[in-house]
Design goal:
The structure is a homodimer.
Chain A lengths: L5 E5 L8 H13 L4 E6 L1 H9 L4 H4 E5 L10 H6 L5 H11 L4 E4 L3 H12 L9 E8 L2 E6 L9 H17 L6 E5 L10 H12 L5 E6 L1 H6 L4 E3 L2 H27 L2 H9 L1 H11 L7 E4 L4 E4 L6 H16 L2 H18 L5 H7 L1
Parallel strand pairs in A: 1-2, 1-4, 2-3, 4-11, 6-9, 7-8, 7-9
Antiparallel strand pairs in A: 5-6, 5-10, 10-11
Helix pairs in contact in A: 1-13, 5-6, 7-8, 7-14, 7-15, 8-15
């Protein structure tokens, strides 16, 4: 990369902002010394925080604004009064070409609404989706949509497959396998929307590495590289998995505390437990990516710390350095050709007809 | 209980049937010495297995049949040729009053289809649901539907709340709290169907202990006693949680094996790990219950062993001993009154209108 990579940060987004944003930027700068930041937020708060981090002053420009989006704002409210907020201004940087990617740990709904208004959805994509990396037994898988769209038709699921595939390629997987999340692997199972999407992905000459249906437990197994689902199911699956991991850790602590031998074992195995919690730590895989927009926006967990925010910045940098937009566009051209030549494969129509 | 409790078992259902069924019956008999079994299946196979279990011969009657439902049968196929199958005959026992509850580890779709045909759905219930007990940090919660209905309207979600509440009461919880699974806890979130159901549960004089919306991670936390969702989401949440628990156990084993101190710690903490795996063991919480039918049917995991099948029998015995049918009927009368007096609260209409 010859051009300097610039990240626009919503410095006021997140439960612990702006501290975690500045801390995250400092951590990311150590890993990627060439990047530059534009920090949108309260200059009075930001200046001393940036100064306290060695080397960050030279890499970060503070763009002062008094306003910010609150976690409890409804997306519509945030958008209405939000054009001077740190979140809006960070996205605006991407729109104007002042930055390659915007990152925020703020209100997800507001961020998506503002991103849609400013960056617009890509041509031939109905709606953007939120994707994240899910830790699996075999590594990591891309899962989408995680909550941007609660109702999804077959055509949109195909679009999500295309977006997710491109994201996986951007992360370094050359020919990622793609599965549709369903309640069984047989062809007869599931919603009409899923069946319509499966037909296109299976029969079309898209040359996608389409695996077929996968079930809930296939996510953790890492059966496929990209798991496609609607935003309602994806959000509930993600939070259910987070809850289960926390529950397991809770039971493990209780079980080890209960006896002398358990406590002794825990003492000897402390290093192993640290390795385990690093592996299951949601902070190390932080960063939901908004896919399908004319510009890059990455969402960090609202409750994260500086380390977690730095992970979101890592994701943002990977995305900005990749060529994923072109691979999406190429796929969309294939899909459009397919629909023109074979009206039967128009999944939107199929869903309506069925 | 004065009457002898009789369980009708599909002795040929399950990957390891009939062995696990007979073994499970023997384990359950030790815990509940008064119960009696009617074992439907291949008499030639069953006789020696029953004889080998001390005391079981006196408590079990073998009802011979040559036919059984296969795991790969489609529900419609199973029903068409299935009237002599062990599964059909077990349910038929419940219909005829020869048994109080039927239990099968066979094909779920076929079992539900046969149960609906033979037992019929309860008056004022649109469709039956599958409920199970989910281990949580605070104990166990009832979750439904787990896959009987992939599309669900608001009225059905209210029915599921009533069915789940009654099941929790049958399990010994006097005033169970009920939550609707959603992608956020704010009132504006979610599908129209969920919003319509929330309105009835919140505003109606049903006097249900309605908590509100819960998210995916609330299941493991045990935030509420009964979690209500559609069968698509419920099935994916359940399998995602199972996958995550297995993944965590896998990572734990890997982390402990990696170093000498980890292995030493694991040696000392072996008892604690056994307690943990007992707690997360799906076999100890085996038994999905079909709710909303005029008769009791319990589904055991297909891949379970004798111990797991015995857990399903425990659930069946709890259900058969409870008065849950009457508490459902009382609730349904309340709901019908509500809909008559206040047409606005007719959730089915509301969904159509919105």
């Amino acid at each position: 990369m010859t051009e300097t990579l610039i990240l626009a940060l919503d410095a006021m987004g997140g439960d612990q902002a702006p501290d975690i944003v500045v801390e995250g930027a400092a951590i990311a700068l150590l890993r990627h010394p060439g990047v530059r930041f534009r920090l949108h937020g309260d200059g009075g708060l930001l200046k001393p925080l940036v100064k306290a981090q060695r080397g960050l002053s030279d890499a970060a420009e503070i763009v002062h604004t008094d306003e910010s989006v609150l976690m409890e704002d409804k997306p519509s409210e945030a958008v209405r009064r939000g054009r001077k907020t740190s979140m809006w201004l960070a996205i605006d940087d991407v729109r104007k070409g002042n930055a390659h990617v915007a990152v925020s740990a703020g209100n997800t709904g507001a961020l998506m609404a503002m991103a849609k208004i400013q960056l617009k959805t890509m041509p031939n994509i109905s709606r953007p989706a939120i994707a994240a990396l899910w830790p699996t037994e075999r590594g990591e898988s891309v899962v989408l949509d995680l909550g941007a769209n609660i109702a999804t038709d077959g055509r949109q699921l195909v679009e999500f497959a295309i977006l997710g595939e491109a994201y996986a390629i951007a992360l370094g997987l050359p020919n990622p396998s793609v599965g549709l999340l369903n309640i069984g692997v047989e062809e007869v199972k599931g919603h009409d929307e899923i069946k319509a999407a499966a037909k296109v992905l299976r029969d079309s000459p898209l040359e996608m590495n389409y695996f077929g249906f996968v079930e809930g437990d296939d996510i953790a197994k890492g059966t496929v590289d990209v798991i496609v689902t609607d935003g309602f199911t994806g959000n509930i699956a993600l939070k259910t998995a987070e809850g289960t991991a926390r529950q397991f850790a809770h039971f493990l602590r209780l079980a080890l505390k209960r006896s002398f031998w358990g406590r002794l074992g825990a003492f000897f195995a402390a290093g192993a437990f640290r390795a385990l919690s690093a592996k299951m730590d949601p902070r190390s895989l932080n960063g939901g990516v908004f896919l399908g927009l004319n510009g890059l926006v990455v969402k960090s967990h609202g409750g994260t710390d500086g380390k977690g925010f730095a992970s979101a910045l890592d994701v943002a940098i990977d995305m900005a350095e990749s060529d994923f937009k072109h691979s999406i566009e190429a796929r969309l051209v294939e899909l459009a050709d397919l629909e023109t030549n074979d009206p039967d494969s128009n999944v939107s129509q199929e869903v309506v007809a069925s």
